[in-house]
Amino acid sequence: MLAINKPLVQFALALATVLMLPIFLKSGIHASEILIFALVATACNLLLGYTGLLSFGQGIFFGVGSYAAGILLTRYGFPTWLMLTLASVLGALIAAIVGWLSIRRQGVYFVMLTLAFAQFFYFLAYTFSGITGGDNGLLDVPRPAVGNALNSPWSYYTYVAFSFLALFAMMLRVTQSTFGRTLIAVRDNPERAAAIGFPVKAFKTTAFAISGAVTAYAGALHAMLVGVAPLSNIEYHTSETILIMTIIGGSTSLFASVLGASAYMLLADWLSQIWPRWLLLLGAALIVVALFLQKGLWGLVERIWSAYSGRTANAREPQTEERSIL
Fold first, then answer.
1. Nearest-angstrom CA–CA distance, 30 and 26
2. DSSP string of 24-81, one letter each residue
3. What is the pLDDT of residue 294?
4. How does pLDDT run across 241-277, given as a tens digit for each residue?
5. Which sign, positive or negative, has the C-alpha torsion 282, 284, 285, 290?
6. How many CB atoms lie within 10 A of CB 301?
7. How far apart are the C-alpha atoms of 36 and 222, rounded to whole Å?
8. Integer Cα distance of 313 and 26 in angstroms
9. What gap in Å lies between CA 198 and CA 207, rounded to an integer?
């Protein structure tokens, strides 16, 4: 394992990202969005990179978290901590159901099932407008009530940053545990994993539940950030965006997802200022990644690190030999 892929280094990089965003960005809302979608991409990576499941259903859980925040805060006045807990539990429950049904098929049929579920939940949200607000969404979603301390964008960024770091550390713990290593075995050879006694479907369903819980938590944070739980959060386009972020970053480590989400959000913001049809330029950038960076941006970082480490080792070898001669 490369040194940059070790858990402590990954967490240090996440912490550095949290500390650097306020230095380089003027908007606290934009910085908070980057951390929120970095969290979502990390949850997606648990499925794509560690379990080998290409899911188009991540938008379901993101939208469920947003609606949970809107309904529980605006209509029932739940405290924020309880709302976030219930949103995570609801996201985990729905993800477990979607995952349990979808993993009954493999390959393209699995992908089609997750896409079908995404459309199903979107039309549910659109149809039951009395609950979800329909096209208008749920408005006036409040931020956590800590006096007036979190009313400003940068103070709320601090709140999001602590949540991001805590959940990122938890995800690192999951991937480094026996459970996480078993997921990799299931990804690489599910038949052999099943043959030696691992309950493959149970592991995949659990991975779905964890991913859904984290994604729903992030959806609730996003609703409080923008003050709205919009219908667009549960559209399948949201699932596509989350997958693109994950693929851009790469799936070989968790921080790769943070890198992918940050690159996507920053590039989208920059390109939209250059040209109204910025999605065309973004598509060209994605083609470059697909053709030349199959392991994503993090794969490029790994290659640079390996080359640098190799040169450093070669530079030290003559010194070692000289000492041995003396």
1. 8
2. H-S-HHHHHHHHHHHHHHHHHHHHHTTT----S-HHHHHHHHHHHHHHHHHTS---HH
3. 78
4. 999 999 999 988 999 999 999 999 999 988 888 888 8
5. positive
6. 22
7. 7
8. 41
9. 14
How far is residue 31's CA from residue 28's CA, in Å, rounded to a whole number? Answer: 5
User: What is the secondary structure of 240-281 as a DSSP string?
Assistant: HHHHHHHHHH-SSSHHHHHHHHHHHHHHHHHHHHH-TTHHHH
Question: Using one digit for the tens of pLDDT, what is the confidence trace for 24-42?
Answer: 999 999 999 999 999 999 9
Q: Which two tokens stand for residue 277?
A: 């049809």
**SS3 at position 255:** helix
Helices and strands (H and E) in the chain: how many = 14, 2
Backbone angles phi, psi at 139, to 5 degrees: -100, 165
Residue % of the chain over a pLDDT of 90: 75
The amino acid at 1: M
Distance between CA atoms of residues 63 and 72, nearest Å: 14
**Token pair belonging to 72:** 């529980």
Full-model pTM:
0.93
Please tell me the predicted confidence (pLDDT) of residue 155. 92
List pLDDT tens digits, range 101-116.
Answer: 999 998 999 999 999 9
Quote the tokens at residue 160: 């999001």
Q: Which two tokens stand for residue 21?
A: 């965003």
What tokens does 323 get?
Answer: 């000492």
Structure tokens at 18: 């949290």
Say what the pLDDT of residue 226 is: 94
Neighbours of 127 (CB within 10 A): 11
Given a cut of 70, whether residue 323 has pLDDT beyond it is no
Q: How confident is the model at residue 311 (pLDDT cuts 50, 70, 90)?
A: low
Distance of alpha carbon 102 from alpha carbon 115, whole angstroms: 10
Q: Own/partner pairs for 290-296, CB < 8 Å, 24+ apart?
A: 293/250, 295/250, 295/251, 295/252, 296/247, 296/248, 296/249, 296/250, 296/251, 296/252, 296/256, 296/259, 296/260
